[in-house]
Design goal:
By secondary structure, this protein is an alpha/beta fold. It has 16 helices and twelve strands.
Length: 393
C-alpha cells in the first residue's frame, strides 16, 4: 500500500463553532477586526488566522482546502468556483508573456481551448505533445518553458501519464509539473509522485453528486500565498471564489470518496472485461492490453482500483448516438456530459466534451468519431447493468 489519502482525511479533526461534528458554515462575505492594525496586517498577508473578505479566504473554504491538502499530501490548497478556474488561475500565476508551456494534446476540451486559443493572445506559447512519448516531451522543452501540464489519466483516451518521469523532465529544465487528477482522486497521489501542483474539477468524483461546480488547486504554502496575494494573485484578482455553503457540502462528500472510488472502479472493471470478451474496442487502464496498464499499476494506490472511466469505440457518430439512445431508454444511465456521478453517464467525446479540439487534431491523436466516454456509476447490481448494455449493442 503506497499511500492512504483516505486515512489522511479521516485523521483531520474539524469541529463546528459550537462543538458541532461538522464544521460551521460561514454565512458572511466580510469579517470584523478588533483593531485597525490587525486589518492592515491581514491586507499585507502578515497575519495568520484572520479572515478579511470571502473572495480572499473564508473559514468554510479553508476547512475544505485543509482536507484536500491532507488528501494530496501538499502543504496547502485553494478552493475555486470551477475546475477551469483552478487550471487557468494556476497557469496564469506561473506564466508571463514570453513564457512557454508543454502539454498533452489529449486533454479536456475546455483546457485545450484555453491553451490553444486564449493563452497565445497574451504571448504565452504552448506546444502540444503525445504525453506518453517522453522523448517528445523532452524535445519540446525550451529555456523559457515554465510548466509541463498533463492529466494523470487523459480525457477521453485514458492514456496514463508517467508522473515521476515528467517531473524529472520538468525539473531538469527548471520548470514545474502541473497535473489534473480529476479522473483519479485517491487512485493516484501526483504530489507524492513528483508533481508540483495538483488541480481538480471537484464537480466530478470528489463531490460526486453533480449538484455544483467547483475546483481546487493543491500545492506549496508559497504558491497558494502567491495565488491569494491581494496585489498580484490571480485567484484573488480574477475572483473565482466558491460559495461557503457549497464548500461545506463538498467537504462532507469528501469523507465518502474512498468508498465511492472503490465501487466506481469495481463496476468499471467488470464492464470493461465483459466488453472485451465481446471483442469490442474498449479502453480501460485496468485491462492488461491497455498500453500503460503496467505503468498505471506501478504508480497507483492499489486499494482504490483503476478508476470509473472507460471508453468504447463504436467507429461512427451515428452508431454511437444510436447505442447511447438505446442505453438511456434501457435504464443504463444518462446521455450527458460530465462524470463522477452515482449514475452512469455517457457521451460521444468528439462531439461534446472534446468538440473544442479541431477534427484534424482529433484524428491525429486517435480520437475516433464514434468514441463514447463512460463514467461508470455506483450500481449495486453491475451484472444487471451489463445485461442492459449488452441488449443495446
Amino acid at each position: 500500500m503506497k499511500s492512504d489519502p483516505a486515512k489522511r482525511i479521516y485523521d483531520i479533526q474539524q469541529f463546528g463553532e459550537f462543538g458541532g461534528v461538522n464544521p460551521s458554515i460561514t454565512d458572511s462575505s466580510t469579517y470584523t477586526f478588533l483593531e485597525g492594525e490587525t486589518m492592515e496586517e491581514t491586507f499585507l498577508g502578515h497575519m495568520e488566522g484572520c479572515f478579511l473578505y470571502s473572495r480572499h479566504w473564508n473559514p468554510s473554504n479553508k476547512y475544505l482546502a485543509d482536507a484536500l491538502a491532507a488528501m494530496e499530501k501538499t502543504e496547502s490548497a485553494w478552493i475555486t468556483s470551477s475546475g477551469m478556474a483552478a487550471i487557468t488561475c494556476s497557469l496564469l500565476q506561473l506564466c508571463n508573456s514570453g513564457d512557454h508551456i508543454v502539454t498533452s494534446v489529449t486533454t479536456y476540451g475546455g483546457t485545450y481551448a484555453f491553451l490553444k486559443n486564449w493563452l497565445p493572445k497574451y504571448n504565452i506559447e504552448v506546444t502540444f505533445v503525445d504525453i506518453t512519448r517522453l522523448e517528445e516531451v523532452k524535445n519540446a522543452m525550451r529555456p523559457n518553458t515554465k510548466v509541463i501540464y498533463t492529466e494523470t489519466v487523459t480525457n477521453p483516451l485514458l492514456q496514463v501519464s508517467d508522473i515521476p518521469e515528467l517531473a524529472r523532465i520538468a525539473h531538469a529544465g527548471n520548470a514545474k509539473l502541473m497535473v489534473d487528477n480529476t479522473f483519479t482522486p485517491m487512485i493516484f497521489s501526483p504530489a507524492e509522485l513528483g508533481a508540483d501542483f495538483v488541480v481538480y474539477s471537484m464537480t466530478k468524483f470528489i463531490n460526486g453528486k453533480n449538484d455544483c461546480v467547483a475546483g481546487a488547486i493543491c500545492g506549496s504554502n508559497e504558491f497558494i500565498a502567491q495565488l491569494s496575494n491581494v496585489n498580484d494573485g490571480t485567484a484573488m484578482l480574477l475572483g473565482p471564489v466558491l460559495d461557503p455553503l457549497r464548500s461545506s457540502s463538498i467537504l462532507k462528500n469528501l469523507h465518502t470518496l474512498h468508498l465511492r472510488m472503490k465501487q466506481h472502479s469495481s463496476n468499471a472493471m467488470y464492464i470493461a472485461q465483459k466488453l472485451e470478451e465481446l471483442e469490442l474496442s474498449v479502453k480501460y487502464p485496468g485491462l492488461k492490453k491497455h498500453p500503460q496498464h503496467e505503468l498505471h499499476t506501478q504508480l497507483m494506490n492499489q486499494q482504490f482500483g483503476y478508476g470509473g472511466m472507460l471508453a468504447i469505440d463504436f467507429e461512427t457518430e451515428k452508431n454511437a448516438n444510436t447505442i447511447m439512445n438505446k442505453m438511456q431508454q434501457a435504464g443504463v444511465g444518462y446521455l450527458a456530459v460530465s462524470l463522477g456521478y452515482f449514475r452512469t453517464l455517457f457521451s460521444c467525446s468528439g462531439h461534446s466534451t472534446s468538440s473544442e479540439i479541431p477534427i484534424e487534431v482529433q484524428k491525429e491523436m486517435g480520437l475516433s468519431d464514434g468514441l463514447v466516454r463512460f463514467s461508470v456509476g455506483l450500481d449495486n447490481d453491475i451484472e444487471e447493468t451489463f445485461e442492459k448494455i449488452k441488449s443495446c449493442l
